[in-house]
Amino acid sequence: MPKTKAKEKMVLISVHIPKQMLEELDEFVKQGIFPQQERGN
After folding, report:
1. In terms of C-beta density within 10 A (0-12 exposed, 13-18 middle, 19 or more buried), how is residue 25 classed?
2. Integer-rounded Cα radius of gyration of the chain
3. Looking at residue 23, what is its pLDDT?
4. Which of 3, 4, 39, 2 is nearest to 23 (CA)?
């Protein structure tokens, strides 16, 4: 997945997902596939 260009604007979203999916997304972040994510509680 290409890195985001500095001039592109990002949009903040909030979703409810199963814990297993969240763990898989965390693994993508660790591998550098997805950028860092912020989580609210």
Report:
1. middle
2. 12
3. 93
4. 39
Could you tell me the CA-to-CA distances from 38 to 4, 5, 13 in Å, in that order?
Answer: 17, 20, 10
DSSP 3-state assignment of 26?
A: helix
pTM of the predicted model, to two decimals?
0.51
Per-residue pLDDT for 11 more than 70? yes
Distance CA 32, CA 28 (A): 6
Torsion of the alpha carbons at 11, 8, 28 and 26, rounded to the nearest 10: -30
Distance CA(8)–CA(30), nearest Å, equals 23
